[in-house]
Design brief:
CATH architecture of the largest domain: 3-Layer(aba) Sandwich
Oligomer: single chain
Shape: globular
Number of helices: 14
Number of domains: 2
Bound molecules: flavin-adenine dinucleotide
CATH topology of the largest domain: Vanillyl-alcohol Oxidase, Chain A, domain 3
Number of strands: 19
Structural class: alpha+beta
CATH superfamily of the largest domain: FAD-linked oxidases, C-terminal domain
Largest sheet: 8 strands, antiparallel
Length: about 500
């Protein structure tokens, strides 16, 4: 029998412990429950004849959404007929993959919108080095196919939601360390031009079109299928460390010198308002052939991860909580062994906004390493000044792109990828426009460029200062497509001959 004095003491200790748990964990639980409760799926089903993109800021009436047939021969024949009719009737054509660009790059008002998604067949060559894939295939279809053959994608975005055609046409990049953008992994592709003819483009054949259509935003023709270089799937070990931003580059360079065989790297900045961009968590993945490569599986705890991520919108508390969760709890839950395919096979759907009132908007700036620190200093001033609600900032390393005409990485660059939440109102969009323009000016001052697939907030002057080759790019577009059949809102805003400097 425990003496009464001791029992009282025991009860008091238990009560104090419980109170401590409630005080520390309680607010977090309440916050997450509130976020989950309010997280309704309110994405609008568009009326027939309308299209939009993932920004949900570009709802536009088109004359037709044209579904590409599954069968290759039927697809080519019918596409050719569509183009002949378009040329005769002065119709405009835009091309859509997964529609994750955000500035109407897949849309032309009153035009025909081609949906490439059904065009998704693929086959690996016998030596397992080249994937032949139709342009509508998404990474979420390609990765499970490659997994069966022990292979993996060489360069792609950080999520699997995108098509090959869309990825090539923006010349995407990912967090594969020290790699140029995706064009570097393309052996060749077949392109249907505006007159309906099909040409093969590679570094040896139709070289000019190769460099224009990669990163060409669908303005030079329809990419039908691609020969894409692929690599081995691998077992990778994660090493993570948290450092103050000021010393981050030096410590990262030391690590890389010690262990140069790193495969994938990203750095995530602290976004809590009281420590804005002051700390960074660096995640590095190294080959670890000491065991079996884990198989592809559905990622776990997605509801909790979504609540933690969405809970950082419009909430300083939520931003702090997320940093704590992602730096202290997630590494314990996720473990340290992954397969390359597992890391690449994550969908963007788990974190994207689905509410009626707000949406997510991406920005990206490519800055030479030498000036990246000072650009970050400017970002720290500009974003709070415009009350930008930043939910995520990652920094990646991209090597020089020797392949594309409208290239953003004309030297090795640090890519700052910023993910914002904004209201779907004209006033909020105008505030984002002003902030974007300041960010673009800062990137240009630092010898960098901004990424083109996002909102079209840049002025014409900014586009041409960031991309001095843009005028020649648009002139070449008109040489290859004299009737300007392939169009979209990006071309409409910046590309026309008569358009000088759109405001
Ligand atoms: C959540 C999110 C995360 C992202 N992450 C990254 C990232 O990590 N790295 C990165 O580089 N980008 C990223 N992006 C940006 C970019 O939009 C995508 O890389 C890419 O455009 C998505 O492919 P898609 O299939 O959605 O393309 P779409 O938006 O459908 O199309 C993009 C462009 O390609 C053209 N196009 C599409 N298919 C064809 C075709 N077959 N032939 C010719 N032209 C075609 C379209 O006309 C359009 O101009 C991200 C975007 C979002 C929303």
């Amino acid at each position: 029998m425990i003496p009464r004095k001791w029992r009282t003491w025991l009860w008091m200790s238990l009560a104090a412990g419980l109170a401590l748990v409630v005080l520390t964990v309680g607010p977090a639980m309440l916050h997450l429950v509130r976020v989950t409760w309010n997280d309704a799926d309110q994405i609008e089903v568009l009326p027939p004849g309308y299209v939009d993109d993932v920004s949900r800021m570009n709802k536009t009436k088109v004359s037709e959404v044209w579904e590409i047939p599954l069968d290759e021969q039927a697809a080519e024949q019918q596409l050719r007929e569509l183009l002949v009719k378009a040329q005769a009737d002065g119709l405009r054509i835009s091309i859509a993959g997964a529609r994750h660009s955000m500035g109407g790059h897949t849309i032309y008002p009153g035009g025909v919108s081609i949906n490439m998604l059904p065009f998704n067949r693929m086959k690996l060559n016998p030596s397992g080095t080249i994937l032949h894939v139709q342009a509508g295939a998404r990474w979420s279809e390609i990765i499970p196919y490659l997994e069966q053959h022990g292979r993996s994608v060489e360069v792609m975005q950080s999520d699997n939601s995108f098509t090959v055609g869309g990825s090539l046409s923006v010349n995407c990049h990912g967090w594969q360390y020290g790699r140029p953008p995706i064009a570097s992994t393309v052996e060749s592709f077949r392109l249907m031009k505006a007159d309906g003819t099909i040409v093969r483009c590679s570094r040896g054949e139709n070289k000019e079109l190769f460099s224009l259509a990669l990163g060409g935003y669908g303005l030079f023709g329809i990419i039908l299928d691609v020969e894409l270089r692929v690599v081995a799937n691998e077992r990778l070990r994660l090493e993570q460390y948290i450092v103050p931003v000021d010393g981050a580059l030096a410590s990262f360079e030391r690590k890389i010198l010690e262990k140069p065989d790193v495969r994938m790297v990203y750095a995530r900045l602290n976004i809590s308002p009281d420590k804005l961009f002051q700390e960074v968590i660096i995640s590095m993945f190294f080959p670890d052939p000491s065991g079996e490569i884990p198989g592809l599986e559905e990622p776990g705890s997605m509801k909790l991860r979504r609540a933690v991520f969405r809970g950082s919108a419009a909430s300083a508390y939520g931003k702090k909580l997320r940093w704590e969760a992602e730096t202290k709890i997630q590494p314990l839950l996720a473990g340290s062994i992954f397969s390359r395919n597992q890391l690449l096979n994550e969908s963007a759907d788990w974190y994207l906004d689905r509410s009626m009132d707000s949406t997510d908007i991406l920005h990206e700036y490519f800055i030479p390493r030498a000036t990246a620190g000072s650009f970050l200093g400017e970002m720290r001033q500009i974003i709070p000044k415009h009350r930008g609600d930043v939910l995520n900032v990652t920094v990646r390393d991209i090597n020089t792109d020797p392949d594309t005409f409208l290239r953003y990485a004309d030297q090795p660059v640090s890519a700052f990828v910023l993910f914002f939440s904004q209201s779907r109102t004209p006033a909020a969009d105008a505030r984002m426009r002003d902030m974007t323009r300041e960010m673009i000016d800062a990137s240009i001052r630092h010898g960098g460029r901004y990424y083109l697939p996002y909102r079209l907030h840049a002025t014409g002057d900014q586009l041409h200062r960031a991309y001095p080759q843009a005028r020649s790019f648009f002139d070449l577009k008109r040489q290859h497509d004299p009737r300007e059949t392939f169009q979209n809102q990006f071309y409409l805003r910046y590309g026309g001959q008569t358009v000088g400097d759109p405001e």
